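TICKET: design request
STATUS: open
ATTACHED STRUCTURE:
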């Protein structure tokens, strides 16, 4: 089934870190740079010598066969794992030694392969949890229910509904998150991540479990998020129709190493990528 989504072609240009970024971002420092990034688990090189730059408003893809190291890269970027080698620069700042919470406050938010919502809380409360990066009120004003507390509560409520409206979910605000259909839970997780006010949004298989019409809607919404918030998005995804239709730069991993970087057209025509996904043809 072909998607009604129409991709806008973007000219990609090289930057000094041997990567490419959209032409519109070339006069600004990349939001993310990975330099010779690697991590070992015992004797296993799970990720090795990863070099990657992402433009400030780029929608980028990280793809590869199962076990290629994609989620490990996300875990490195968010400091679930500390790298064995290399450097991660976020908006030009070295993230060495930072915790997951500190990285989130610096500007990276993520979703997960397996949805991680607070199922017994309302949809709105799940989004409000994401607003924790913005100082809401002092402990004293919260305990005493001072006017400043109610003012901040009203602002948080309005902001949560505003974010939910991106996915037309504002009418679901009072529903329990766990009662939502699967696709709506996926969307809520993205909204909660956006509530942390990121400059880089990491989406780990956002289309997993979605039907073709939901996936087409998701593609439109990912572009809408980038355009509305003027942020960068890096996604892991096995749905190649989604990747090739919305990703401007694509990085391909296999056995923890980058085997190709380029535009959708370049990646689709790359023999190493074809071999990684389909296997090497046996000579007759």
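STATUS: resolved
RESOLUTION: sequence designed for all positions
ATTACHED SEQUENCE:
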């Amino acid at each position: 089934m072909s998607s009604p989504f129409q991709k806008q072609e973007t000219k990609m240009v090289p930057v000094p870190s041997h990567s490419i970024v959209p032409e519109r971002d070339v006069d600004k420092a990349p939001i993310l740079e990975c330099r010779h990034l690697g991590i070992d688990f015992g004797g296993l090189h799970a990720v090795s010598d990863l070099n990657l730059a992402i433009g400030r408003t780029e929608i980028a893809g990280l793809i590869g066969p199962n076990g290629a190291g994609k989620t490990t890269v996300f875990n490195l970027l968010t400091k679930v794992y500390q790298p064995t080698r290399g450097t991660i620069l976020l908006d030009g700042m070295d993230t060495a030694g930072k915790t997951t919470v500190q990285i989130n406050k610096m500007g990276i938010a993520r979703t997960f392969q397996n949805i991680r919502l607070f199922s017994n809380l309302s949809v709105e409360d799940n989004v409000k949890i994401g607003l924790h990066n913005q100082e809401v009120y002092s402990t004293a004003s919260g305990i005493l229910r001072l006017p400043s507390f109610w003012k901040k509560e009203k602002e948080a409520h309005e902001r949560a509904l505003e974010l939910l409206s991106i996915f037309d979910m504002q009418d679901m605000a009072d529903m329990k998150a766990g009662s939502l259909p699967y696709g709506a839970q996926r969307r809520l997780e993205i909204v909660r991540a956006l509530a942390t006010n990121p400059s880089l949004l990491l989406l780990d298989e956002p289309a997993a479990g979605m039907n073709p019409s939901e996936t087409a809607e998701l593609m439109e919404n990912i572009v809408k998020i980038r355009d509305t918030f003027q942020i960068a998005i890096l996604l892991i995804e096995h749905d190649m129709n989604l990747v090739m239709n919305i990703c401007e730069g694509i990085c391909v991993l296999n056995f923890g190493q980058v085997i190709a970087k380029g535009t959708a057209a370049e990646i689709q025509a790359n023999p190493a990528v074809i071999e990684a996904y389909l296997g090497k043809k046996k000579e007759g």
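CLOSING REMARK: The two ends are 33 Å apart (CA to CA). The chain has two domains: 1-107+198-284, 120-197.
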